[in-house]
Amino acid sequence: MRTPHAKMTVIKYAPSAKHDFAEISQYYLEISRQTFGNVMDDIASCIDVLTSNPEAGIKFRSAQRRIVSTKYRFVVVYLLEDNNQTARIIGIYRFQNR
Hints:
The chain is of the alpha+beta class. It has one domain (10-97): RelE-like (YaeB-like fold). Helices cover 38% and strands 29% of the residues. It is built from 2 helices and 5 strands; from the N terminus they run βααββββ. Strands 1-5-4-3-2 form a 5-stranded mixed sheet. A hairpin with a 5-residue loop joins β3 and β4 (74-81). α1 packs antiparallel against α2 (33-52). The radius of gyration is 14 Å and the shape is globular. The termini are far apart.
């Protein structure tokens, strides 16, 4: 449960994550609008967790962390910056694709 005065972690996107997001969007839009919406909601819910719990992801590759979306198993790779005040998303991909 969030406390009313808790600071929210700011989410920022590296160019690599923006590229990944665009590729994912294009791919799922070609399949179906409903699937596209479901996938985008799944990824957004995963990233939203980081605003209140920036350490939710598992540490790997030294400073990088990753968190996996619930339904479609997308991996969101991020770095914590500014004493955990910022989570910089550096990659988004399907678990089995990398």
